[in-house]
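lol forgot to send this yesterday, sorry. struct tokens for the thing we talked abt
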């Protein structure tokens, strides 16, 4: 990045900077409480209050038949380290009705670029299905939500989304794929400022010095560099319910081993499906604290979770399905460190399902059998990950579907109780009903 951009960083108001949570274990426990409450509620209330999918984010909004009229309620549904990302909750609705991006310096009203650069909070939605091919990086301003629900929105074929030195960003319900490098061009970042951009990496979503960021229910694939990368002091991030496919270096969290500001990075990675065609970095971590909970890893070629420079990795209730290659069975990979160094790093696995010979090499406090006993509350069992993540990726949201979901889940919950069915069987039936109704509707 240019000297000008680093100078801009030091001029930022303090409110855009985020201090790390002093006790990240408390955030982990809060996430696990919400997950457990979501799965338990149908047995107590017989489905009146929740879909009870075990996915507290979806249960917070997805069963509401009036979700389209209550879009901004989504901002209250995040969990984990990015839970305070409010996006454009307190602002107006901005409707994008123009898929063009003719002028990155003077964007036309009605385009996505015109929406995201504004100073005021905005909740950005789309008038119809559209494919947006950006000419340059989409530089977002603070307090913005990109909400693709109700339309099929693709950002593809050009540079993609950059969250640089801004805060309170929600990116929800869009397809991001085939992202290219941009740069060596002028690009506007706000109504008052535009400047020269050097060559970008070509990430799907690039978070650079950003905080309070939530990326949820997006489908990401086949970008030039990472699908979602967070570097240079970024923190307070939740990456949830995404479906990622066909990519090499999926997710980089931390700029370099020497960039010590990333020790304050705290990221929650929950309910994602890491699918076909993925190779490595799901994620690759440096220095910070990373809670990886209830994700479904069905494909990798080299490894799933890696890191260097002593990150804390807390893996709970994930399903790891190893590839058939006998040399790629290990979930974990330590980079640039001898065993004598990494054996003190705190990497722990609790309740993970290891399939087809997969194995997780724990270290530090996570390698101690006393850790599991000391943990007061676990994530949902990894056996439920398939149902929890069944809706990962951009959804096809339909008006009025919520009440049908509640009614069906209510009926199946009652049936499960009467038949004295195992909880996991009831959960599976509820999830199948959810998907069938969405497909039919």
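and heres what i got for the seq, position by position
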């Amino acid at each position: 990045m240019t000297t000008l951009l680093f100078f801009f960083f030091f001029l930022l108001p303090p409110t855009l900077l985020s201090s790390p949570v002093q006790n990240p274990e408390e955030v982990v426990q809060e996430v696990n409480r919400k997950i457990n409450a979501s799965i338990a509620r149908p047995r107590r209330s017989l489905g009146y209050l929740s879909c009870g999918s075990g996915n507290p984010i979806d249960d917070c909004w997805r069963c509401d038949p009036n979700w389209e009229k209550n879009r901004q309620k989504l901002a209250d549904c995040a969990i984990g380290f990015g839970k305070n990302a409010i996006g454009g909750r307190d602002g107006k609705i901005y409707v994008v009705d123009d898929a063009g991006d003719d002028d990155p310096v003077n964007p036309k009203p009605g385009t996505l670029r015109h929406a995201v650069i504004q100073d005021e909070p905005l909740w950005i939605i789309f008038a119809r299905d559209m494919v947006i091919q950006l000419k340059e990086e989409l530089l977002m301003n603070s307090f913005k939500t990109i909400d693709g629900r109700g339309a099929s929105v693709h950002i593809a074929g050009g540079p993609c989304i950059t969250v640089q030195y801004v805060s309170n960003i929600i990116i929800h319900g869009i397809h991001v794929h085939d992202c290219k490098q941009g740069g060596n061009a002028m690009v506007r970042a706000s109504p008052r400022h535009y400047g020269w951009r050097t060559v970008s990496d070509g990430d799907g979503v690039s978070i650079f010095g950003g905080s309070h960021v939530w990326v949820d229910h997006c489908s990401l694939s086949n970008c030039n560099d990472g699908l979602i990368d967070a570097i240079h002091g970024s923190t307070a991030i939740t990456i949830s319910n995404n479906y990622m496919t066909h990519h090499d270096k999926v997710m980089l969290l931390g700029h370099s081993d020497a960039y010590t500001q990333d020790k304050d990075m705290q990221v929650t990675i929950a309910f994602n499906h890491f699918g076909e065609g993925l190779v490595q970095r799901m994620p690759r971590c440096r220095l910070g604290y990373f809670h990886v909970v209830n994700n479904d890893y069905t494909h990798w070629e080299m490894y799933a979770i890696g890191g260097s420079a002593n990150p804390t990795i807390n893996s709970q209730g994930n399903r790891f399905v190893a590839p058939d290659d006998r040399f790629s069975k290990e979930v974990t990979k330590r980079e640039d460190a001898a065993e004598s160094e990494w054996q003190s790093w705190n990497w722990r696995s609790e309740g993970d399902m290891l399939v087809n010979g997969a194995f997780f090499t724990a270290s530090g406090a996570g390698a101690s059998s006393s850790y599991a006993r000391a943990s007061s509350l676990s994530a949902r069992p990894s056996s439920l990950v398939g149902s929890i993540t069944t809706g990962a990726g951009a959804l096809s949201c339909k008006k009025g579907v919520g009440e049908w979901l509640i009614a069906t889940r209510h009926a199946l919950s009652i049936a499960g109780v009467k038949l004295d069915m195992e909880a996991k069987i009831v959960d599976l039936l509820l999830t199948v009903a959810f998907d069938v109704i969405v497909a039919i509707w």
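The two ends are 48 Å apart (CA to CA). anyway ping me if u want another try
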